[in-house]
Amino acid sequence: MPYALSDFSDNAGLHLILNLPAEADDVAIAREANARHILVRPLSRYYLTAARKKGLLMGFASQPEEQMASAFSVLLGCLQTHCPQMLLLREDAEKQNAPT
Length: 100
Hints:
It comes from Klebsiella pneumoniae subsp. ozaenae. This is Transcriptional regulator GabR. InterPro entries: PyrdxlP-dep_Trfase, PyrdxlP-dep_Trfase_small. The chain is an alpha+beta fold. The protein has one domain: Aspartate Aminotransferase, domain 1. The chain has helices at about 25-35, 70-80, 85-95; strands spanning about 15-20, 40, 55-60. The chain has a three-stranded antiparallel sheet with strand order 1-3-2. The radius of gyration is 16 Å and the shape is globular.
């Protein structure tokens, strides 16, 4: 059966990865998001080595499109609680790139 395994390339993905700063606790962020009914997985748990990137693995295949905005709002609240420096850096970058 040569067709049993297929290459689905990058355009067929059903997941997103949100990279977080090294000091972020992606496990705690995922735990809070999951408690608020937003299913994300801590990226650091997928590494076998001591050097682990921090981030969140987010699937979107089963999420109805009309619920995505509210799901991201909940996730943003979790990030504001656990990783406020990431959001401040983003705001600073946007101010620097804003037209004058």
